[in-house]
Amino acid sequence: MAEAVARAVTGGRNLVVQAGTGTGKSLAYLVPAALSGRTVVIATATKALQDQLADKDLPFVGAHLGHPFTFAVLKGRANYLCLDKAREIGAVEDGEGQLDLADVDTGELGRLGRQVVRLLKWAKDSDTGDRADLDFEPSPAAWSRLSVSAAECPGAARCPMGEPCFAEVARRRAADADIVVVNTHLYAMHLASGGFLLPEHDVVVFDEAHQLEDVIASALDRELSGGRFIALARSLRAVAGPEGERDATGLDDAALRLERALQPLVDRRLPSGPAGDEGIAAALTTCLDRANRALTALRAGAAEAGDAAGRKQRAMKAATSLLDDLIAAAEMTDDQVAWVEGPAHSPTLRIAPIDVAGLLAHLLWDDIHSAVLTSATIPPNLPARVGLPPDSFAHIDVGSPFDHAGHAVLYCARALPDPRSPDYERAMHEELEALIRAAGGRTLALFTSWRAMRAAAEALKPRLPWHVLTQDDLPKPALVAAFTDDETSCLFATMGFWQGLDVPGPALSMVVIDRLPFPRPDEPLLQARRDRSGPGAFEDVDLPRAATLLAQGAGRLIRSATDRGVVAVLDPRLAKAAYRTTLLAGLPPMRRTGLRANVESFLADLRARS
After folding, report:
1. Using one digit for the tens of pLDDT, what is the confidence trace for 527-543?
2. Domain that holds residue 146
3. Which terminus in the chain has less CB density within 10 A, N or C?
4. What contacts 369, CB < 8 A, 6 or more positions away?
């Protein structure tokens, strides 16, 4: 793989690499990237992998390569503490000086106040301001008090704290680095901005590339909710005082009108877009007028200094971003899809591109010297779906060094009822209990919905002698640590654990998948893609996604050369459906069985060895 990456970078070609578990794909692209003499951006689908590259893999390469290079990590603005907000909060309200954090009696504060003070203290000594460097997990409310999104940050030139800004310092470091590590969402925002967010670069590596299409679509979508108008109204009152009350009240009214128009349509696609619904169209017209008035009021205000200057600039940027999204909603094209999501009391209108292939062809592939797309599982139609020109790339599969055939068994519970039948859930719980007992706990059970996970946990916790953890119990890092440390425990989880979970050793001896992970038929973006695909929608949209996610879930089992265990799929369609060949082709070459007795015998032998 390293040789293929080096050839692609040297020759100015693109490369698509399927690199199975244990390949060491990070090293395989980092080494040629470091040796290339070119500026390389590495985009990952998760911040966890971003941090792993920066904290582990890149330092390792730097220590052993014998070739000097520099690297930096760059994240979206919301990941960095905002020094201007920190300065405002830390200032005494009467303007007589700065708050002495050492004198604050946190015992008299609520949880939110204690966390804000803790964040302020941390910011005084932090070199990065990066949320990932915290030694505790702040609540969303606490972090939002001290951070800004790209939609409200006015930029370094207009911010009183623009020079020492943590996000700007990170950007300057990235500008001087040979290798820059970002997440794919930020890379998409960079493309949408016209190439202004990241340093100029010749090569891009997309790790976890199987998620590229969805991450790009998500990053380029537009969101409109009543909460954005309420937040802008609050900012307008803080900046303009009583003089801005009329326009602030107008924003509150716009929020209410938008929410009322969206509420009846929650979880529904808007086939004709926002303009096709009379209530939404009228609400958006009012929203556009009120946001324009708010921006005019902000611009007309007297020049501010100190804390007020920063608040005013952030409010103006938020108003401008809101107006941009309102105009985009009014000018929605046939290449986009609109839908309403969220709880009924706080609905959100979303507009996203249906097809990112054309966007990437225009914004990326024509301009980049070389791109590498890699993942443990590459869907067969990925290059076409992300717009890679057919003659512009090589495609290789480097396999996995692990002995899946000798160390793992794939079991399909073909005797279970169809998952769509009313008898399925009870039978599935009984099957899951029998399998967990055979494994002696040590099970990661992956479910396709929160409801299914909670129902299984409720049914099996009283019947099993081992500790059953669920995704509701703890934050993900703490949950994984608890599962790893208690070797006989079980972990019941949903989609967030189907990929990226790495628990080598006997603590994870069995992966159980409740049903084939086909996407919901009413998911709006996929509905629109199906419409475009026509009669071949199942093969073009649903089946590749299910095959990729099934392979990702099964990939949680064998994480080292000595791992052994079972992947159990409690969906008989894997053994009976006409499309099963496609699903099985994407899985590692495990031994297969449809008899639970064979699984119980294998697991008994495994327990005896341990």
Report:
1. 999 999 999 999 999 99
2. 80-158
3. C
4. 9, 12, 38, 202, 203
